[in-house]
Amino acid sequence: MQDATTVAVTGDLVLDEPDAGYWLSGIAPALKAADIAIGHLEVPHTKSEMELEGDVPAPGAPLENLRPLVQAGFDILSLAGNHIADRGAEGIAETVAELEKLGIAFCGAGANLEEARRPAFAHSKGHTVALLSYNCIGPEMAWAADDRAGCAYLPLETSDGAQVTPIADFTGAASACSDILQDDIEAARRGGADHVVVALHKGRVHTPAHVAPYEREVARLAVDAGADAVISHHAHIVQGIEFYRGAPIFHGLGNGCVVTRALSPDQDHAARREWALRRKELFGFEPDPDYYLAPFHPEAVSGFIGQLTFHHDAQVMASIVPVDVEAPGRPVLAEGNRAQDILRYVEDITARAGLPPIRISPHGLVRAAA
User: Fold this and answer.
1) Quick check: is 243 in a domain?
2) Are 197 and 230 in contact (CB under 8 A)?
């Protein structure tokens, strides 16, 4: 084993707009500086016009917008989320075929459940890093099965007894979660992984400083099953960080790079237009009109890229690279006072979410508070 390996981890990527390379260029230096970079592909890149019922369907992003992810430095993409199947089996098939063509490793979705649960690998400096990706929030019709394309998932218990519904509260992990995580992490180790990262699509969208009990439970189950680190996305706003048995858990990486008009109330698609209006009522915020390509909660302009440093002795360290989102939605590496404000913000939201306190150094190193 050679030197320590650094892995940059980002949240949701939605690249609907032309010139995807421009929108990614503000964070690309940090991605390229890492040995391996991981992101979460939120929507399918496809020409398919099919729409899956059961959630507000995202539009398919252009296939040509995947190549700029390679140019920006991404090596692995997680795919398991609530929108990856919005364009049906064809949408998934076109997405993964293009990723294979471009040489980007991926996991979390496929033509069947076996493919969706298959780990992705990347190699650097004598280290092999595996990624596993799971959707925790539904909709069920997007979940892969033995004979159905979709995403990998972890089943949760809900207050109304259904597997997943849009309005029921999650009460905890179903008993099958541990078995799924144990089996898949062991498979990744057999495949040669020195380090295993588990990506979870979880949380409550557009809500600052909120980590539900089920989120901590599922993340800790992953560590108990052998994961070296857990990363999370879906909330479209960064969340707190904690350590469990020495493993860092990023409870919400926020937006890696989201530039889309699908969240605008001024559009022809009825369901997406209605959701854009309902978000204001449900979550109590008014998007800044200057952020018309990223109309999220005002606090979502404070972001970060997570960084995991894996050492030869199995020690893993966590740090963050502060990111500022500029209007109309372009993320850039933060500097000076703005960077320090973001570091303090992450300390604050961790405490406000009821997580154990953390301390972040001026250089971004994250540690559990003594």
Assistant:
1) yes
2) yes
Calculate Rg over the CA atoms of the chain: 19
Q: Which spans in the chain are helix H?
A: 20-24, 28-33, 67-72, 88-102, 113-116, 176-190, 213-224, 270-283, 336-352
Q: Token digits for 253?
A: 């990486």
Using one digit for the tens of pLDDT, what is the confidence trace for 177-210? 999 999 999 999 999 999 999 999 999 999 999 9
| Predicted pLDDT at 164 | 61
Q: What are the φ and ψ backbone dihedral angles of 83, each rounded to 5 degrees?
A: -120, -10
Q: Which two tokens stand for residue 150?
A: 């979709």
pLDDT for the residue numbered 270: 81
pTM of the model: 0.96
What's the half-sphere exposure (Cβ side, CA atoms, 13 Å) at 157? 10
For residue 301, the number of C-alpha atoms closer than 13 Å in the C-beta half-sphere is 15
With beta carbons less than 8 A apart as the criterion, state whether 255 and 324 touch: no
User: Which residue has tokens 């539009």?
Assistant: 59
**Which segments of the chain have a pLDDT < 50?**
1
Query: 209 is in which domain, residue-wise?
Result: 5-334
Residue pair 107/78 in contact (Cβ under 8 Å)? The answer is yes
pLDDT given at position 1 = 42
CATH number at residue 298: 3.60.21.10
* DSSP-derived 3-state class of residue 51: coil
| Cα–Cα distance for residue pair 96/99, rounded to 1 Å | 5
Query: What tens digit of pLDDT does each residue of 25-74 get?
Result: 999 999 999 999 999 999 999 998 888 776 777 889 999 999 999 999 99
Q: For the chain, how many structural domains are there in total?
A: 1
